Automatic annotation (TrEMBL):
It holds the Pfam family Peptidase_C1_2. The keyword Plastid does not apply. One of its GO terms (cellular component) is cytoplasm. Its EC number is 3.4.22.40. The keyword Cytoplasm applies. Belongs to the peptidase C1 family. The lineage of its organism: Eukaryota, Metazoa, Ecdysozoa, Arthropoda, Hexapoda. It catalyses: Inactivates bleomycin B2 (a cytotoxic glycometallopeptide) by hydrolysis of a carboxyamide bond of beta-aminoalanine, but also shows general aminopeptidase activity. The specificity varies somewhat with source, but amino acid arylamides of Met, Leu and Ala are preferred. It is found in: Cytoplasm. The active site is at 74, 374, 396. This is Bleomycin hydrolase. Gene3D superfamilies: Cysteine proteinases. Its main location: cytoplasm. InterPro entries: Papain-like_cys_pep_sf, Pept_cys_AS, Peptidase_C1B.
Length: 455
């Protein structure tokens, strides 16, 4: 009897083996890669020699370099890194950080509440647990990551505080264990809520149950992270060593009085580039069930060509304004040297494949090969000989070990392939692009890659 189609037979493996050893380059590659990180072994010497951290247009950068450590809080770090620049200029500070743990605490609380209400909503719609939607919601109910509109929700409701007023805890720097506890409880709570809905329980009973569940969530998060004080007092020295004292004041009052005049999150807009044929440019999109606060603003995506995003980044930086952005950080990235470049690795030479770029950007989104995974900040750029943006400087939140004391270099070509969204002030955006925000948003399914959260 003949073997079924698709069986990998000994004859096939013999053919593979003979072809592998027939190419002596494979032997050298095997010797190198079995003793080293395969991607580090592929780093291009020629590319490294041509890379530098000198730029034509650069904003006034500030200290210290931040470090999110073992957490998925990049979206919070990137936002606060952008916001602290004008704040530090105004208050003449030598070094400063807003409290990332403060926003992280409130995001965990609000997002658990958001998740539980989504479970109720899907149950009322008759969605089964086995269906794709509910399965997706249950898969990772309390992800650390986020999107721009989600950070705006937190800041507009809870404000900001200096990091000295609410510092890191062990859990904020290593979130896995707390997330494990929260995930377990949220799935347990989801079953309880779905049972109430199936038994035609009243809305009052549902809300009472959610409040009881949220008390448990609050206790877990409060124990692991600490609980922010209702009011803070901030004492500091400016660059001239003059003493200042602010407070007692709430986080929201602190934002409105001391930060918002110099960085108003409501004056910033998020533009994305999604080149899939089914998602035309100059349209507004949102993702179903994506968010973090009940009653907060929706996550909205104004879809524009990537060249538009690159141009607006340049205009912002020339005006001394840093730019929040989201990208797929892991592709064609030389981590230790902090280089984002399509030519950073000689993968073709080592493995004989066109790694990661065999698919074009639209197809990478469609086939699950690409999505936004990380948020960082643009602080500088240079034009090339063709007057187009050739390279950009990137402030990351992984400490000082990589790149130029934590700053990375990104080529314009890498930007076009792996950057998916930017946030800029409205004043830099043409009126016709701003008008897209007035359109009714096209709703994408919860699992759409544009809903991926930056970690």
């Amino acid at each position: 009897m003949a073997n079924p189609v698709g069986i990998l037979t000994p004859e096939i493996f013999n053919d593979f083996r003979e072809k592998f050893y027939a190419d002596k380059k494979n032997l050298l590659a095997q010797n190198v890669c079995t003793k080293n990180n395969p991607l580090d072994a592929c780093i291009s010497r020629a590319n490294t020699a041509e890379t530098n951290h000198v730029f034509q247009h650069k904003i006034t950068e500030v200290k210290p370099m931040t470090n999110q450590k073992n957490s998925g809080r990049c979206w919070i770090f990137a936002t606060l890194n952008v916001m602290r620049i004008p704040f530090m200029r105004r208050h003449m500070l030598e070094d400063f950080e807003f409290s990332q743990p403060y926003l992280f605490f409130w995001d965990k609380i609000e997002r658990c509440n958001f998740f539980l209400h989504n479970i109720v909503k899907t149950a009322k719609l008759g969605e089964k647990v086995e269906d794709r939607l509910v399965s997706f919601l249950l898969r990772d109910p309390i992800n650390d990551g986020g999107q721009w509109d989600m950070i705006c929700n937190l800041i507009n409701r809870y404000g900001l505080v200096p990091k000295t007023c609410f510092p890191e805890s062990w859990t904020t720097e290593c979130t896995t264990r707390m997330n494990f506890l929260l995930t377990s409880k949220l799935r347990e709570f989801a079953k309880i809520l779905r049972t109430i809905v199936e038994e035609n329980g009243s809305d009052d009973k549902i809300e009472k149950t959610i409040l009881e569940q949220m008390a448990v969530i609050y206790r877990i998060v409060g124990i692991c992270i600490g609980i922010p004080s209702e009011k803070i007092t901030w004492e500091y020295y400016d660059k001239s060593k003059n003493y200042h004292c602010v407070g007692p004041i709430t986080g929201l009052e602190f934002y409105k009085q001391y930060v918002k005049p110099y960085f108003n999150v409501d004056e910033k807009v998020c533009l994305v580039t999604d080149p899939r044929p089914s998602h035309p440019f100059n349209e507004l999109y949102t993702v179903e069930y994506l968010g973090n606060i009940i009653g907060g603003r929706k996550v909205l995506y104004n879809n524009q060509p990537v060249e538009t995003l690159l141009q607006l980044v340049a205009e912002s930086i020339k005006d001394n304004e840093a730019v929040w952005f989201g990208c797929e950080v892991s592709k064609r990235f030389a981590s230790k040297s902090g280089v984002h470049d399509l030519k950073a690795h000689d993968i073709e030479v080592m493995f004989g494949i066109d790694a990661q770029l065999g698919l074009k950007k639209p197809d990478r989104l469609i086939y699950g090969e690409s999505c936004m995974t990380h948020a960082m900040v643009f602080t500088a750029f240079s034009y090339g000989e063709d007057t187009k943006v050739a390279k950009l400087r990137v402030e990351n939140s992984w400490g000082e070990e990589r790149g130029d004391k934590g700053y990375h270099v990104m080529t314009g070509d890498w930007f076009k392939e792996f950057v998916f969204e930017i946030v800029v002030d409205k004043k830099y955006v043409p009126a016709d692009i701003l008008a897209v925000f007035d359109k009714e948003a096209i709703v994408l399914p919860a699992w759409d890659p544009m809903g991926t959260l930056a970690e």
